[in-house]
Amino acid sequence: MGYELWVRSYGSGAMGQELWVRSYGSGAMGQELWVMSYGSGAMGQELWVRSYGFMSYGSGAMGQELWVRSYGSGAMGQGLWVRGYGSGAMGQELWVMSYGSGAMGQELWVKSYGSGAMGQELWVRSYGSGAMGYELWVRSYGSGALGQELLVRSFGSGAMGQELWVRSYGSGAMGQELWVRSYGSGAMGQELWVRSFGS
Question: How confident is the model over 95-104, as a mean pLDDT?
Answer without folding.
Answer: 45
